[in-house]
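User: I'm writing a tutorial on reading structure tokens. Could you give me a worked example: one chain, its sequence, then its tokens, then a sentence or two explaining what the tokens reveal?
Assistant: Sure. Here is the example chain.
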Amino acid sequence: MAVAPATGWHTRQVTDRAEVAAFLRTDRLYAAYALGDLDSSVRRRAAWGMAYDQEGRPRGLAMQHLGLPPQPLFLMGDPEACREVLATEVRPRYAFVQARHDLATAFDDLYRVDLPASLLRMVVDRDSFRPYAGGGAVRLGPADIGDLNRLYQLGLGGGFPASILEDGVYYGVRVGGRLVAAAGTHVINPSEGIAVVGNVLTHVDHRGQGHAKAATSGVTVELLARVSDVALNVYADNDSAIAAYLRLGYREYCRLGEWVAYRRAGGWDLIRPLRAALRWSLPRADR
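And here are its predicted structure tokens:
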């Protein structure tokens, strides 16, 4: 049942794929992750809410991945409309937010935030892509999952399953038989013509030699054979990675903020210092 706040926005939870997709397509390169999730199992494990103006036009959307916190939270549209969705329909208590910087006003009175960061959304298409000819990157398969998890330093039960190398596209570079760099995919949705590159990482002892560029190029070649647009996120202060992506033909599309957010009401404020003390770090990879 729709909720009509005093502001005049009407909000409700949405399950209809066509309605969600139509709104996401109004800025498809910004919504690349969400469009990628539309035809995957993730959509069944997410809560979607939308806000409508007094004429019934959709103006804001929030999508929360369900599961263990922090729950990824995506926002799109008018900040005031998104704020109403967060107030009424999509209410994670502990969330990991990536959104345009102006959308911070959608949650700043509802959440306390930690660990702010700035990202670039970069995109490439078949016309602008310039593949990297060198580097020796090769496609990774399920047998490489142990090496991949060691590169990402994922252990203690936190490693990726071998299925990611079957369902996604991963390329890596080996030196002396050791996997020293890799790049992969977050989402691929051929029906929406979109894919997202992620998990780009080079071992600290082998940086500055073009390995990440070679792996990213290999992934991008395969993705552009299946979709029209490929996106990725990169930290705004990672000058070397940005330069490498520019040489591959990627361009900056928009700037994003990244926050860990805690709902202001409830017990999360009380346990936040404990969670911060117990947090363990992974090697910083491009998102």
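What the tokens reveal: Residues 211-224 form the longest helix (14 residues). Residues 85 and 157 are 35 Å apart (CA to CA).
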